[in-house]
Amino acid sequence: MSLKILIVEDERIIAEDIRSMIESLGYRVIDIVDNGDMALELLAQEPADLVLMDIKIRGPMNGIETARQIYSRFDVPVIYLTAYADESTLKRIKETVAYGFIVKPASRQTIQGTIELAIYKHNMDCQLRERDERFEHLNRVLRAIRNVNQLIIKEMDRDRLLQGICNSLTETLGYQKTWIAVVDADNAPIHFGQAGFEETVNGFGRLFADGNWVRCAELAIGKPGRIIMNPRQECKKCRLYDDEKEYSRFSTRLEYGGKIYGLFSVAVPIRFVEDPEERELFRELACDIVFALYRIELEEKKQYAETLVEARERTLSTLMDNLPGMAYRCLADENWTMKFVSTGCRSLTGYWPDDLVDNQRFSYEEIIHPDDRDSVRDQVLNPVGENGQYELTYRIMTASGEIRWVWERGCFTGEKEGEHKILEGVIHDITEQKEAEEYLRQSEEKYRVLVENMTDAVFMVDCEKKVLSVNQSAARLLQKNADQVIGKTIFDLFPKELADNYHASIGHVFHSGKPLVVERKSLFANREIWLVASLSPIKDKNGNVIAVIGVSRDVSERKYAEQKLRESEARYRAIVEDQHEYIERWLPDGAITFVNESFCKSSGKTADEWLGTNIFDTLGESDRKRLKKKLRGLTPEAPFETDAYEEVLADGSHRWTEWTDRALFDENGKIREIQSVGRDITRRKIA
After folding, report:
1. pLDDT beyond 60 at 182
2. pTM exceeds 0.85, yes or no
3. How many C-alpha atoms does 224 have within 13 Å on its Cβ side?
4. For domain 579-686, is the CATH number 3.30.70.920?
5. Of 124, 80, 138, nearest in space to 104 by CA
6. Of the candidates 658, 659, 647, 660, which has an alpha carbon nearest to the alpha carbon of residue 684?
C-alpha cells in the first residue's frame, strides 16, 4: 500500500509541483492545506504516514509549531519545506523531532530520498521505542517479583506484609495505587494495606466499615479475577479512584483452598490493560499474596516455604513462557548442554524444550550456524562485560532449515555442575532488525549509484576546502579521474580568480550553516560554460558544519537560448513598430493587450491609454454583434476573418477601418488571443 502524504504549503503552485513529483513516485497525496489548523483537523479525520511542512504558512501557527503538535498528537513524521531559514528558525527546528529538511525548489530525487529516509527513520524510532518500553516493563516485572517474594519470605507480621507489598508494587511496578484487604469469615475487612492514597491505613479501613465496599471490590468479592476495563462508566463516583482518568482497575479476591482471604486491587496504566502478560502477572502476584496469607495463617514456616516455592516456580515459569524469545540455563561444555529452556524455544528454533534439555535430540551447539560456532564460543567463554556478562549476535538454523539472526545476553551464575560452569541468559530473534539493516545498506548503495550516474556534477569538500568526493560527471567536467581530484584543494583545480569565487561561496555556507545557490560563468578546458551550483551544509550531531556538498548543473544552453529569445523579441518588436498598418492584440473578452505606434498615431491615444481597454467599446452595437458572431465561427482550421467596421475616435469623429483578424488557439482548441491588422478605408467608403 502506497504512503499517504499530507502537504502543508501556502504557495499553491509550489504545492502542486511537489504533489506531481510525489505522485510520480507512487505515493498518494491525501490533500494540500495552507495552515496548521486545517492540517491538524485533517489528520484527526484521515491519518497520514508523512507530512511535508512549509515553515512559513498561513494562520496563527507557523510550520514548526504545527509540526510539534502533529508529532505529539498523531506521531506522524514531518519533513520541513523551505526556500530559506534564518538562525532562529533553524534553532527552533532542532528543538522539534525533524525527520528531514528539503530546500525549495527540490528535485524529484531529493524528495524521494528524503521521504524514504524519513519513513525508515520513523519506523526504526517506533521499533526502538516499543522495544525499550517492553524491556523496561519486563525489568519492572522481574524487580517486583523479586521484591515481593523477598518480602513474603522475610515478613511474618500480617500488617507489615500487606503494607510492604503495596509499597513495593506501587514503587516498582508503576501501579499508581494499590490496596489489599484481608477479610474474616463474613467477608468483613479486618486488615489493610495501601499505597498511593491520601487516606491512612486506619482511615482506609473506615471507608470499608460494615462491608461498604467500592464497586470493583464488590464485583471481585463475588467473582475472582475481576478487571475493570472502563472505570469511568463502571465506577462512577468512586471514593478511591474518582480522580484517575488514565488508569484502569485490576481487582481480584484472594482465595486458596476454597477459602476467601481478602481482596487485592491496583490502578493499572491503560496501555497495559490488554497485555496478557500484565494480567497474568497480576494474577500470579495475587497468588503470591494469598500464599503469604496462607503461610501466616498456618504459622508453619516449612509448609509456607514449600507452598511459596511452588507459587514462585509457577510465577517464574509463566513469566518465562511469556517472554519474547527463549530463556535458558546451560552448562559451559562442548555442547552447551541445556538444563532448562523456556517454551519460547519452540517459536525461536522450531524445537520443543524437551528436544534440547540434556541434549535429548539435539544440542544447542548443533543449532548454531557452523560458521558462527567458534565466534560464539570465544565470546561467551571470554566475556568483556563485568561480572562475567556477555552479549553477542549470531545465526542459528531452525528445525525447518531457516536461518535466523539472534541476539543473546547472559552471564556465569558462579555455580558449577561437575566441572562445568553454569550460564543463564535470554535469546531473542532479531532477524527483522538484521533485514532492516541490510535494506538500509542496499538503500545507501542505491543512492550512491544514483549519484554516480547523475548528469549533474556532485562534489563534497571539507572545512579546508579539500575535495572529499566527486561523482563521474564532476570528474568529466574537470577532464580528470576522480582519484586525481579527491584530496585536492579548490586552488589546485581552478584558475585563481574562479577559485577565489568558489572559495568565498563555500566559505559562506560553512560560516552561515545555510544552503546557498550560485550561478556563475566558469572556464573548463578552455570552454566557457554557465553553472548553477546548489551548496548545502552537512552537520554533525552538535550542529557544526563539517562539510559542504554541492550539485552543479550546466545551464549554458538555457542561458544562450534566453539570449537568443531576447534578441528575437527585439527584432519582432522593431518590425511591428515600424509597420504603417494598424496592429492590435486582444483577448476573447475584448481586453486590448498590445497596439503598435501606427495605430496610436491614427487614434490620437497613447499605448498606455489603450492597454486594458475593451475593443468592443470602440464599435457600434451592430458592428459589435457582427464581430462577436464572426469570432465564434473561427476554428484552428479557419482562423482568419476580414471585415470593415466603423470606429469612434478619441475626438468623437468616426472612421472606417478594414481589419483582418487571426485567432490564436491553445492546445484544447480554445481561442487564447486575437491578432488584428487593419488599415483606414474611410475615403473608399465615402466615395
Report:
1. yes
2. no
3. 15
4. no
5. 80
6. 658
CATH architecture of 155-321: 2-Layer Sandwich (3.30)
Task: List b or e across 643-653, with b for residues whose CB sees 16 or more CB atoms inside 10 angstroms.
Answer: eebebeeeeee
CB atoms within 10 A of CB 328: 25
- What's the 3-state SS for 371-404? HHHHHHHHHHHCCCCHHHEEEEEEEEECCCCCEE
> What is the grid cell recorded at 152?
513474603
Q: By three-state DSSP, how is residue 271 classified?
A: helix
What sign for the dihedral angle of Cα 594, 598, 602, 605? positive
The answer to whether the beta carbons of residues 51 and 78 sit under 8 Å apart is yes
The mean-pLDDT minimum among 302-316, 613-627, 658-672 falls in: 302-316
Q: How far apart are CA 576 and CA 243, in angstroms?
A: 85
* pLDDT tens-digit series, residues 115-154: 888 888 888 887 887 777 767 766 776 677 778 888 888 8
Spell out the residues 6+ positions from residue 684 whose beta carbon is closer than 8 angstroms to its own. Answer: 656
Question: What's the rounded Cα separation, in Å, for the pair 383 and 325?
Answer: 22
Q: How many C-beta neighbours within 10 Å does residue 286 have?
A: 23
How do the domains of the chain map onto residue ranges?
A: 4-127, 155-321, 324-435, 454-556, 579-686
Q: For residue 354, name the pLDDT band (cuts at 50, 70, 90).
A: very high
The mean predicted confidence, pLDDT, of the chain is: 82
Instruction: Classify strands 420-429 and 403-417 as parallel, antiparallel or unpaired.
Output: antiparallel
| Full DSSP string of 499-527 | HHHHHHHHHHHHHH-S-EEEEEEEEETTE
Fold of 324-435: Beta-Lactamase (3.30.450)
Question: Residue 204: what pLDDT?
Answer: 63
Nearest to 431 by CA among 356, 349, 346, 367: 349
Which residues pair with residue 591 across a beta bridge? Answer: 614
pLDDT digits (tens, 9 = 90+) for 312-351: 666 666 666 666 788 899 999 999 999 998 888 888 999 9
DSSP characters over 276-308: HHHHHHHHHHHHHHHHHHHHHHHT-HHHHHHHH
Structure letter (DSSP) for residue 177: -
Query: What gap in Å lies between CA 626 and CA 446, rounded to an integer?
Result: 66
HSE-up of residue 390 (Cα within 13 Å, Cβ side): 22
If you write DSSP's letter for every residue of 213-230 in order, what string do you get? --HHHHHHHHSSSEEES-
Fold: same for 155-321 and 579-686: yes
Question: Cell 489489599 maps to which residue?
Answer: 180
Strands (E), 471-622: 516-524, 527-539, 545-554, 582-586, 592-595
Query: Are 290 and 275 contacting, i.e. CB atoms less than 8 angstroms apart?
Result: no
Is the domain 454-556 a CATH 3.30.450.20 member? yes
Q: What are the CB-based long-range contacts (under 8 Å, 24+) for 398-404?
A: 398/348, 398/349, 398/350, 398/367, 399/349, 399/350, 399/351, 400/350, 402/350, 403/369, 404/348, 404/429, 404/431
Helical spans, DSSP H, in 155-270: 158-173, 201-207, 215-222, 231-234
Fold of 4-127: Rossmann fold (3.40.50)
